[in-house]
Amino acid sequence: MSLHFELVTPARLVRSEEVHMVVVPGTDGEFGVLEGHAPFMSTVKDGAIKVYRSAGAAPEEIQVQGGFAEVSAKGLTVLAEHVEG
């Protein structure tokens, strides 16, 4: 079982992949998303998105600046204003 994760900026699609879990720096605090998470939307603050490719794996950190996150039946989409790297 996996979560479909997409990271998008106004300029390009940065990531589109299947992962175990993603932790997002929401403006009201960090939140983790696994497959089957209830749908919701949140604004994203500047910080690191942590991508866990498998259970127990060390996270890959992706620095983002602002944006929105949407969790739906299709997975997690983060629309970031800017992604470093």
Q: Shape, please? A: globular
Largest sheet: 8 strands, mixed
Rg estimate, integer Å: 11 Å
CATH fold type = ATP Synthase, domain 1
Would you identify the CATH architecture? Sandwich
- Topology, number of strands: 8
How many structural domains can be distinguished in the coordinates?
1
Helix content: under 10%
CATH structural class:
Mainly Beta
Low-confidence stretches: none
How many H/I helical runs? Answer: 0
Q: Report the span from N to C terminus.
A: 29 Å
What percent of residues are in strands?
A: over 45%
- CATH homologous superfamily? F0F1 ATP synthase delta/epsilon subunit, N-terminal
- Compressed to H and E, one letter per element, the order equals EEEEEEEE
What structural class results from the helix and strand content? mainly beta
Overall mean pLDDT stands at: 96
InterPro entries: ATP_synth_F1_dsu/esu, ATP_synth_F1_dsu/esu_N, ATPsynth_dsu/esu_N
GO molecular function: ATP binding; proton-transporting ATP synthase activity, rotational mechanism
Protein name: ATP synthase epsilon chain
Pfam families: ATP-synt_DE_N
